[in-house]
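Fig. S4 source data, part A: sequence.
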Amino acid sequence: MKRETGQRTATELNDSHEPVYQALLTAIVEQRLPPGSRLPEEALAIAFGISRTGIRKVLQRLAAVQMIVLLPGRGAKVASPDAEEARDIFHTRALIECGNLPSVMAHCQPPHLAGLERLLEQERQAHRRQDGAAAIRLSAAFHIQLQAISGNRVLTEMVTHLTQRSSLVIAVWGAPWRQGCRCDDHDRLVDYLRAGALPPLTDALQRHFDQILASLRFERDGEAPPDFTRLFAHKGARHL
């Protein structure tokens, strides 16, 4: 049956708010919206130039992927993983990412290595510029692209989600390299992958996660409330 004029499907509504969803998700992952930050609907609606109903739908999507929590009668805030959840996230990443390395190795071709090298160079540049947001984004992209070599799209989606949640863990518990992972760790992984050395590659990735966990201080200072209008000044309705 043909839809009446003016009606829109749920998919179309999600698509129309996709730039807002991506802007908020990126700000959370890059730690420009710290864990625990309140996300008031009215302030966000003004910042993005959309309705509170639209903001509410975006917040529901972010809650579904565990990047924020919705508090009945108290609004939304950026998720703040506790110590147990922090450990579970990195233990799960180690299990999945290390366990997938035989498939990564079996499918790896020179263009894959070239793509990882390009990411590594961009990550080095971000560290040299002290661009924390870019370093965090590129660090996550490295892990995702490494696992994507296997061709397992379901696993790659899982790793993507877990790297996003990892950024919250590092923001909360204060790892020394808050600007993403350490570049030399990623360099070593690519070297082992290029050499076809699976056991050292697996050991190096496991140590990488062990070192991140060992670095977490499990304490966090308070954060000032964000200025949503300034933070998302270029993401208003004219771009949606």
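Fig. S4 source data, part B ends here. Confidence is low (pLDDT under 50) at residues 1-13.
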